[in-house]
Amino acid sequence: MRTLSARNVVVLLPRWLHRSPFPPSSPAPPCTSFLPSRTLITNRHVGKVSSFKDRKALRGSSKATKKQRVPNNVLDDKDLSHILWWKERMEVCKKPSTVQLLKRLEYSNLLGLDCNLRNGSLKDGTLNWEMLQFKSKFPREVLLCRVGDFYEALGIDACILVEYAGLNPFGGLRSDSIPKAGCPVVNLRQTLDDLTNNGFSVCIVEEVQGPTQARSRKGRFIAGHAHPGNPYVYGLVGVDHDLDFPEPMPEYRVLQGAIA
């Protein structure tokens, strides 16, 4: 019986193939081994790896999208009015060096910095970001920030220094960096006079003197303001200005004692 059953199976196989569900027009699929070949396994493995990488890349992109934060220098209506006010002052500048600096301004923040240029980053913790915080408190004043032995100005304020204080821009007129200008500490008094005489108010930011810890930025604070009607800052005496002290007044003393 076993032999007959085996023969029947062999004999009936062609009939099963003849009665296959495939239509007559389409050829029957080739007979292959029931064990998958190594090539198919490899291809499946590669396919899984690639799809896994794609899913991982998609997850990474979604995470990156979630991590994107709204920049903290987004303009509001008040900041926009101050920027337009400064833009009107920039349009009357005529010096060739100032005109070249104006091409590198971007009126998207109160400093007028283009973040795509060299030294134009406004990331938290940078000096530019710190100066932007001071500028937001007094948006219509020229900001002079103490950095070592200089008082520096950036962006719009640097253009004001070049135009009205006769200062040269730092780094020359290279077109790949933000506008930057300043004056030595000993020339601060003259710079303030030039700016106030031309109708500008100035905010002076000092840095804390003395040793600092390693990898720590020096603290800074607003030391005073200079205005056209009051150009002198309390506690500020230029080295080229001598203080005239009047002659001491005579002293009168009244002695009280017992009368004999």
How would you classify the helix and strand content by structural class?
A: alpha+beta
The pLDDT mean sits at: 74
Q: What's the CATH H-level homologous superfamily of the domain at 77-226?
A: DNA repair protein MutS, domain I
* Order of the strands making up the biggest sheet: 3-2-1-4-5
Specify the CATH architecture of the domain at 77-226.
3-Layer(aba) Sandwich
- Number of extended strands: 5
Organism: Stylosanthes scabra
Pfam families: MutS_I (PF01624)
Protein name: DNA mismatch repair ATPase msh1
Domain DNA mismatch repair protein MutS-like N-terminal: 132-230
Verbal overview:
This protein has helices spanning 2-18, 38-67, 77-90, 96-102, 127-137, 156-164, 188-197; strands at residues 142-147, 150-154, 180-184, 202-207, 220-226. It is of the alpha+beta class and 260 residues long. The chain has a 5-stranded mixed β-sheet with strand order 3-2-1-4-5, with helices on both faces. It is globular. The protein starts with a helix and ends in a 34-residue tail after the last strand.
Keyword list:
alpha+beta; 260 residues; MutS, DNA mismatch repair protein, domain I; DNA mismatch repair ATPase msh1; disordered N terminus; DNA_mismatch_repair_MutS_N; MtDNA_mismatch_repair_MutS; DNA_mismatch_repair_MutS-lik_N; 38% helix
